[in-house]
Amino acid sequence: MKIPYTHHEDPELAIVLGVGKEHGIDEAMITYTSKIDVKDWVLLKCKYGCGNYGKSYSCPPNSIPTEEMRKIMREYKRAIFVVSKTKSPEDQKKFKKILLDMEKELIKNEFYKAFALVPCACDRCEICGTIEGRPCSNKDNRPCIEGTGIDIFSLAKKHKKNIQTLKQMKEASESYGLILLD
Ligand code: SF4
Prior knowledge:
Elements: H1 11-21, E1 27-32, H2 42-47, H3 66-74, E2 78-85, H4 89-108, E3 115-117, H5 129-132, H6 152-158, E4 174-180
Antiparallel strand pairs: 1-2, 2-4, 3-4
Helix pairs in contact: 1-4
This protein binds iron/sulfur cluster.
């Protein structure tokens, strides 16, 4: 649902797309936390399928447990689902920073509950503090979406996105971010 950000009737989307525009992000949609599934099976993909498991504060078991995430989701009604074209790890790293900028801009504009969830593990430090036994010093660290149990596949499909598994992908094409809104 591509909408020119300047003509948008939803101020929150105008803010997000306003931040995203200069980075080529032009797709964001309001979604409802009632549509977002938080499932325990999602963490199986982290634990038995991802090299970041236990190696980052943004990933399980150091991230937000699914039960806690379900409680948090009940304290929000709406969220913003952001789509970005990413062709490389650098693109994805940039996308994470943009999601933070969107969160901050929303907070500046009275959406004080805004909180970003990003794709994949935090990669700000050479070696994450969780491995070196030091606390995370980065206040901009945000949890990985799937690491909280959020089923991003079902959400993307509910928004008619042609999400693909890594095997299906010829090349990385899209990344998804979520900003809990209000
Ligand atoms: S900022 Fe560093 S210590 Fe914090 S989660 Fe990211 S990599 Fe780990």
